[in-house]
Amino acid sequence: MDDMYREIIIERYKDPHYRGTLDPHDYTFEDENPLCGDQIRVDVRADEAGMITEAAFSGHGCAISQASADLLIESILGKNVEDVKKMTKQDILDLLGIELGPVRLKCALLSLKVVKAGLYGLGEASDALVDDDEEF
Amino acid sequence: MDDMYREIIIERYKDPHYRGTLDPHDYTFEDENPLCGDQIRVDVRADEAGMITEAAFSGHGCAISQASADLLIESILGKNVEDVKKMTKQDILDLLGIELGPVRLKCALLSLKVVKAGLYGLGEASDALVDDDEEF
Amino acid sequence: MNSSIPFDLQRIRSDFPTLQRQIHNGVPLIYLDSTATAQKPQSVLTAMDEYYRRSNANIHRGVHTLAEEATAAYEGARQSIAQFIGARTAREVIFVRNTTEAINLVAMTWGRTQLQTGDLVILTEMEHHSNLVPWQMLAAERGLRLEFIPVTDDGLLDLAVYQQLLEQGPKLVAFTHMSNVLGTINPAKEMIAAAHQAGALALVDGAQSVPHLPVDVRDLDADFLAFSAHKMVGPTGIGVLYGKEALLNAMPPFMGGGDMIKKVTLRTFAANTLPHKFEAGTPAIAEGIGFGAAVDYLKTVGMQAVEEHEQTIIRYALERFAEISGVTVIGPAAEHKGAVLAFTMQEAHPHDVAQLLDREGIAVRAGHHCAMPLHERFKLPATTRASFYLYNTIEEVDRLAEGVEKVKRMFA
Amino acid sequence: MNSSIPFDLQRIRSDFPTLQRQIHNGVPLIYLDSTATAQKPQSVLTAMDEYYRRSNANIHRGVHTLAEEATAAYEGARQSIAQFIGARTAREVIFVRNTTEAINLVAMTWGRTQLQTGDLVILTEMEHHSNLVPWQMLAAERGLRLEFIPVTDDGLLDLAVYQQLLEQGPKLVAFTHMSNVLGTINPAKEMIAAAHQAGALALVDGAQSVPHLPVDVRDLDADFLAFSAHKMVGPTGIGVLYGKEALLNAMPPFMGGGDMIKKVTLRTFAANTLPHKFEAGTPAIAEGIGFGAAVDYLKTVGMQAVEEHEQTIIRYALERFAEISGVTVIGPAAEHKGAVLAFTMQEAHPHDVAQLLDREGIAVRAGHHCAMPLHERFKLPATTRASFYLYNTIEEVDRLAEGVEKVKRMFA
Ligand SMILES: Cc1ncc(COP(=O)(O)O)c(C=O)c1O
Ligand SMILES: Cc1ncc(COP(=O)(O)O)c(C=O)c1O
After folding, report:
1. Model confidence over D165-182: pLDDT tens digits?
2. pTM of the entire structure?
3. Of the residues C250, C268, C300, which one is the last residue of a structural domain?
4. Are A110 and A60 in contact (CB under 8 A)?
5. D101-154: per-residue pLDDT in tens?
6. D282, D287, D362: best mutation site toward chain C, by most C Cβ within 10 Å?
7. Which end of chain C has the smaller Cβ count within 10 Å, N or C?
8. Domains of chain A listed by start with CATH number
9. Ligand 2 binding pocket, CB closer than 6 Å
10. Which among C266, C300, C334 is the end of a domain?
11. Number of domains, chain D
12. What number of other Cβ atoms are within 10 A of residue D370's Cβ?
């Protein structure tokens, strides 16, 4: 039953490392997946060189959405904003280490969408931020 | 090839016995089958007892529609108007002596519809005049 | 366990090819998502296959053998469906794509011509989006007033409020016969009578009731009834709008094109008679034929038997779920309820529950089930929903309950 | 006889179960009615059967295995079709019931919001009712002006008149790419360029062209293209509206309901993104999958090869019919014509011709073929129409000609 839910997902869902908000912050964004009610906000601080120094997420939703947010934040700390803007769907799948169907993929990608929309300073998050191929 | 087109149909189509118009007449009606362009007008004279003394049809269309008009007129001559009002789909099929699918049935029944609409003095001919069961 | 079930369940199960399927390396499928779409018996697939392999032709205007066979099969299906719902004539049975199109058809034809600014349409808080959005669109266009019968905490309609709303002189009451989330079976006959009393027409969303209960439009006195084949062991791509003949006759056509006309010139057309007036273009012929076979299948089993079987299942499921702590089922008690079990788990999100159950071969749905306002009403972003049909077993309920307990342990 | 035919015709014929059929006690079927609807190859039937027997589930919102398989198959079909017509993205491919619904969709959404009283829409005299009646309905509602490109005695569009009409500043030109009666293949690319030059959009009725010719929306620069699966070896109940993405994005939704929304409250909704915005309710899932298989089948054969084969057939048929006195074929010479042969016989009415040919196993159509104004133009109440597709043979043309000669003798 649990091959799709590697221990780390359940663990990070129950006990996330980067849950919270940052005030002040340099970047922030919030979005939801209306289909399932998943909601994620991410706050980011970066230094003058564009290196991400602190980040935190808040919100609620399924284990996949929350765990991937936590794992994503962990992975962007210390990275340059420009490099994070280039992150893809595959990076998230690698972090999670599981395969996902189209519906759950949306849960998994919500945090990346939010992070990228924040870093780009967009008014609205588009699926195109995280999906290079034709989407369902 | 010709089992459906008994000789009488082709014969009556090519050489009808009752083609024409009657002026004056006691009853007249005209209708068409917009699907195929078949058109039939029937004029009828009856005596005071309601017995049909003369009748004729005009119009154009397929062999089935024209032959059945000719055969129908032949069969109503000498009949009482009230009896003709009671004629049914089956009477026409008996006159033609062939089986017909739903589309061609409309061709075959056009003349009966016209005759009955005329005798009833209707403003418009309805399929219900010739079709007692659920129609296609 | 099956002793109380009044029909041959194993025989029924063997009619459905999908139910023989195993997924994830040998786990047998437990299909508990019939509210979304039902599985199809072999007889339905065969009817469509026969059409495609033997009689495939366009209908109504053809004189060749295939066209006549196809027309007879398609119109025969319409007859069969008309009889299944107790329509007076097959002319009252309009083929559409699905329940959604049926409701849109009424909104766009009857609604556009009969409703004026300020007119009131009564809906309910438990509607599927298909019976909300078409009226929202029309309301925006025409300046209609929409009011909603509230849902009680028990998942029932608040009929006292309905009575008050009726006093405001509505033109239409449109409501679901059975909720696809709560399972609530609404008292349609009484609600329709009250609507008529108040001078309103009544449209019944039968997407969930026609598949699961005996439904008779004459007994209900429904003005319109909408339902989908795919939820009642029939194919996708076809559904029905039933309407009273006089109403349908008075409505303008819906879409324009082939088959819905009697005569066309470059600048004018005359509409065809019922039911063709509302069926523009080449219809879903194979699907109509498959729908007829589906209805024939359900007739053979008997809708009374289907209803009783599902009652047995849902009673057992409710009992079984009451034993699992931290799990909350929404909706009324079994006597007001069809076989739909929507629930939440304290520990786990509905999507995770559904996905983990899938690993056990159990197909359930998670989300808002196209009833966002209802979920809002219960302050839930989503639920997990197991739903049952004539082919489900008590054993499958046990597997489901065990699966839920297993998920609970994972997240504990 | 088949030497000039660049593909394996016997192999193709063996793919189509219906073509193996005998009717009327052993007379083999000669199916010459593909313009009404085409026969289906085994691969299309198998694709749908596979869905129903293995993966039958509702799509888009499901996380269980069946739902994911079904979604992948359905959306994969959309991709395949998008590629077949050269769309930029699958989001430009909207699934509808048929060509008729596609055109109505444009009239009811783009038309209702973009066209005002007095606006001009250009159509042609050779349109199928499906590309006339929706515009008549909209014209009646909005006070539009409709003008028609005349058809010459040869069955071609009078493009000089088209140029004059364009000077009147039309908003839309809607025309058939290929006539379903005359067979005329209109110069769509040039007509669209001229429409754009005049500031109008162009809608192409591709019901007959997409099945029979290579059609590329980017090459044509069509704004909208409508076509039906059932005419291109696919199932009934599904068709496509192609539209340029920016246009589709700017259009309001069509029907309201499940799947076409992003969010719904009791009184408001937000529309979903393309293509779902235009697909309300449970779609024709099996049919979408079957349509994908149909397009894959045609890709394997090659649309160039299909077109060449049909050219061979129609050239031969025109020659053969020219030898039969008293028979008149309407429509242009072979170089402007697809494989459609509509004719009249001095002696016999089209219905009688069709019915007598049926006794020989030959399926042809008789009537106005949903193009009454065109028949009016030629002062014909009806025609008999034989039409050909990739699976027809030169021998079948001979059987047809012999049959026509036989009918002629009967009525002589
Ligand atoms: C040129 C043309 N347009 C439109 C249509 C309508 O297609 P459908 O009936 O599939 O909507 C047809 C089919 O007869 C056609 O030939
Ligand atoms: C109550 C109810 N109404 C309407 C619908 C819409 O049915 P369809 O998607 O077949 O149009 C559904 C199906 O989910 C439903 O459950």
Report:
1. 999 999 999 999 999 999
2. 0.95
3. C300
4. no
5. 999 999 999 999 999 999 999 999 999 999 999 999 999 999 999 999 999 999
6. D282
7. C
8. 3-123 (3.90.1010.10)
9. C 98-100, 128, 130-131, 176, 180, 205, 207-208, 228, 239, 370; D 258, 281-282
10. C300
11. 2
12. 25
